[in-house]
Amino acid sequence: MPSITTGRGAFGDFVYLITSIFGAYFQYLMGLMAKPPLKSLDREIILITGAGNGIGREMCLYLGETCPKVTLVCWDIMKQSNDETVNTLQTMGVKAYGYNIDISNRERVSECAAQVREDVGDVTVIINNAGVLHKTSSFLNLTPTDIERTFNVNTISQCWILREFLPNMVERNSGHVITICSTTGHMGVANFSLYSASKCAQRGLIESISLEMESKNVHINFTTVFPGFINTQLIANTNMSSSLPMPMRTLEPKEVAKEIIEAFRRNEEHVYLPRGNSRLLVLINNLLLPKGGNVLRNLYTFESTEKQ
């Protein structure tokens, strides 16, 4: 087995660890007190998956309103709704291109990426937003199709997309990857086993790639968003109840889109939505392990409203 040494020695490594932890917390607190200015997105070519509805559509529209000089590349499996997003953007005077695509299909992603490079140019920003939640159900009630489709769309598709566009970002030594994850990407939730597993894998993938880029001194920014419950079609058949006097509220796509775009423009690395409750849930889960999940399970209940 290969040995790994840092050259600092045990005591030096300990000092490095402590100073790094305090430095990270200091940087985080400073960010809370004084938010950095929003960076310009002029002439950026931004790819957004799941652009036809929900958060994806709202992010496109918010970008069109606040950054009219961007070029938006809209990907979605639903052609009609994606075309509507593109048409709305073009009416606003924004350069927008729409592509009908199943991102879980590796060959189709490769073909579509080549077409984007020919039609538009090199993508400089990726917003991996598309996702599926087939049903809120016990793991034993899930079908093989549910399992394969969820991982193919939520996780594996991001591998195909990043393999297509990340090399050019590395070559240019610039770019930004925004990943719409979930609070369930930090902790298991009963009746969300499949969705949670796919989001945990998604988080691990992005964290690992980010560290790889950092170790090579490649200046690509990564922003990972961990939202809670959002009022979209994704949770249309799911009911959440809580025994807390101030439960985590359901977010609206417009406010989430605004938070995501502004966080991305500030180069924030991790974004928890809603800003207070969501981060608190993750903190409770981490502090109370291995019983954290049991505590959270007693606070929040998720049930399907679909007829079985």
TrEMBL record:
One example GO MF annotation: all-trans-retinol dehydrogenase (NADP+) activity
Chain ranges passing through the membrane: 14-34
InterPro entries xrefs: SDR_fam (IPR002347)
Membrane topology, from the record: Multi-pass membrane protein
Subcellular location: Membrane
Keywords: Lipid metabolism, Membrane, NADP, Oxidoreductase, Transmembrane, Transmembrane helix
Cellular component GO terms held in the UniProt record: lipid droplet; membrane
A Pfam family recorded for this sequence: adh_short
Main location: membrane
Protein family membership: Belongs to the short-chain dehydrogenases/reductases (SDR) family.
Role according to the record: Catalyzes the reduction of all-trans-retinal to all-trans-retinol in the presence of NADPH.
Annotated protein name in UniProt: Short-chain dehydrogenase/reductase 3
Provenance organism: Allacma fusca
